[in-house]
Structures
1.
Amino acid sequence: MTVTRLDQAQLSASVDELAGLLVDTVDGGASIGFLAPMDHAAAVSWWKERATAVAAGHLAVWAAHDGHRVVGTVSLAFPDKPNSCHRAELVKLMVHRDTRGQGLGRRLLDTAEKAARAAKITLLHLDTETDSPAERLYGSAGWTRAGVIPDYAADPAGVLRPTTLYYKRLEPTT
């Protein structure tokens, strides 16, 4: 599998595949901000909206391809305030259900962390559904659990669930 950073044109050209991944992820039960069943057209629209943030440098998106389709993605969201240029938020780490368990989630996470270091980011943060499989990934990758917020977001079935906040301090590459 290849993992590549998408520029605005590449993201725009891949929206249908990215939408397919988003639909699979949400319909598979991952709580990433959407309710199931996820409509493909709505997923396409959501990804199209990300292209503007990519072009502006506020969002970096990586996609993993298995040669035929997009099977994973991860993004870094960069704040636009002067006092927060040292940090970024890890968002929308997704792996297609039929490629899980092969280390792709870890590879995507490592890719985002390496890019953050290269960009002189010294702090990453994220939130994820409490007790989700993602928590094991973040914990094993050295992320620190900061706390839990009850009833933070609805899962894909619409049930309010707690979220766990994580952070990771990074040493910039020299």
2.
Amino acid sequence: MAEALNATTAGVPRGGLPARAVRSRRARGEPRLGAVAAAFTLAQLVLVRPGLGLGWDESVYVSQVSGHAPAAYFSAPRSRGISLLAAPIASWSDSTVLLRIYLAVLSGLALYLALRVWRGHLRPGVLALAGALFASLWVTLFYGSEAMPNYWVAIGALACVGCFLRARADARDRAARWGVCAGAALMAWMRPTDAVYVVLPLLALALRRPRRPLLLAVPVAGLVAGAGEWVIEAYTSYGGLAHRLSAASAIQGGLGWHLAVVDQLHSLGGRTLCRPCTGPAPNPAVTLWWFALPLLAVLGAVAAVRARRALPVLLPGACAVTAAVPYLFLIGYAAPRFLLPAYALLALPVAHGLVHLVTTPAHRARRTLAAGLVATGLAGHAAVQYVVLEHTVHSSAVSRADWARTAAALRELGVRSPCLLSGYDAVPVAFAAGCGSAQTAGHDASTTVAGLARAAHRAAFAVLTPPRGRPPAYARAWPEQRAGVLRAYVAPDARQGR
């Protein structure tokens, strides 16, 4: 009975196939998934390149486990999952190249394992296409080797939803239950609130089977396990869970009704953060895939319903919708990485819809025409993604190189470890220079002017401003120096004895 159910959900005839045939079919899909994952890793190393310096948020996350520089201020919305994931390299080496290679290889392996979970639910061709669609997006390629949490939420979502379907189909599948727990824990370990939105459809579906309490308990247990450290830290460092959630909401502009769909559309041209999101929208060729995405997902869902194997296509689509809701309607700015979990889950119904377009026509000539059109569209889509990726990598490399030059200039001015920076771009520059960072205002406010004055007597201290910016009142009498592309106001005590 269980084998017949698994065969039906995988798209084989309703009468079912022998277990040996199902296993053979799964085995045939392994090389395709491995090829997709290997190509994804290689593309990151070739197109994004390991020498790309650390970004602003990366500097915060990596500094928590690095011996190269003091830990930067850790604001309320952040979670320590990605810091711990980077720790095997960052804890003993300050090599960005080594960290990038490690994360690229790890992200490719994780993609393979997450896709492998779905072998019993989708045909090998559909599954390989879904993996290729997700892996070829510029935002996936860019963030796969970044020390950022969003890609890993996407991987956890893929694994959690796929294992949930397995556990629902077979109550004796203990491995699937552990997979649900691990996927939910990975998401919550990286971004607790994102994890809750992703699993909402799973919880709703589990409630329909009250005689299977483990279906409800296992994802909840995963959320609790993954978010436990974040909740404990809320009480030890942020004044309680309610205060941390409130502070996180304030940093994100106040959670509530915000129509951020247009902002997300603007970010598709390669803007890693759209806050504020002004300026013209990207070329329609860059955004066309975004409008096609829901249409193809609906097509895949309709085809799955007609074929009576709806759940493996509808459930990831539903989880993608709940994952996207907060970033489309509840915050007032955009970053393309926020939607990575939604893209990963939507890739499954989209791939199902594309395969349906190619295989449905009864006449061979029509199938050939459909296949040609789909292949042409996918080739054009891949070309656009490459162009946007190249632009994003270039613009990111320029700003990160500027931070490195500023850090080198500060060292020449005598600002060396132990040292402290404040002001404009202080967080990434401080990490590059091996200094600590502190701010008296803004989202990263962690000290007072009096605290900075005391620190200036204990360590080298400088305030950074943009070329035409004005320093704070307490630093206006300090010597002004050029530090790379920025201006540095170095405390007199910082240069004494150095």
3.
Amino acid sequence: MATINDVCRVAGVSKATVSRVINGTGQVRASTREKVEAVMKELNYRPSIVAQALANKSANSIGLVISDFTGGYFGSLLKQASVSADKLGKQLFFADGHNNAEDELKAVHSLVEKRCDIIILYSRMLSCEQVVALSKSIDVPLLNVGRLLPESAGYSISFDQKHAIQIAAKHLVELGHKNLTYIGPKPTTPTSRMRLAGFLEYVEQNEQQGLVSQICESNFGFEEGYQATKKWLETNHFGSAIVAAADDIAVGCIKALKEHGILVPEHVSIVSIDNDACSPFIDPPLTTVDVPIRKVADKAMVVAQQILGGEPQPESEVICGQLIERSSARSLWK
């Protein structure tokens, strides 16, 4: 691997000159700059990120804080953020918020200390007021992913959680189902609150058409959906259709139903949210609402680059999901 000394030798210049070319500092004649750049390209020389950070007081990096690293949802977000950062020529630093507000704050400040140029925050636990205060307290721009926040909190790009759950419920109603069971977590995070609120709102709007509902509590996760379903079946039944708050809950639910001799969709239909990578491969393939998390992550990275380039902060955005029809829901009209 080529070193800065190799560049100096081939280009016939000092290390100080090469450093000025790399960091864009000091005076270097155009012809010399072009010669050094050509040699770096010829030798496939890559400057040290650490050295550049020390010279420019910047790590040429984007920070990403996620409240939880588990599950396909956040895995997709991380993967897309990494791909997008690489395309932008930025290093990606990330930190785990451990699903509590104090650690989310610590994670952000740790990335500030690493001299990140901008920080993207996916917070589950911080209140709106806390994010606004955080944005004002740090000296780097803050971008918010996952929920819509006021402009004072920085740019935000979010997914319409209410709309997604209502797409799922509406699809089941259009198939003739009037007795829906929502299976999902207690409303303790922005996502869980909005998904449950969207379901309850849809039911209330359609009560006059005979729509009835019930709530089965289950945390996010395959095992959680499985255990919650088993417990529910000890004393209750699901009606003709289930709206699951997430694909992993739905997968666990389907397994528990099968063990009780309840077939999907022959006996009960299920529609879920997220379009997890596993959803087409379970039996039956899961009808779900696509959450375009990769699109959201990529757009956040593009906006980060725009802001770093001196462009004004754009208006915040809300992205809606689309229903992906597979085989886990059937019509009662036939």
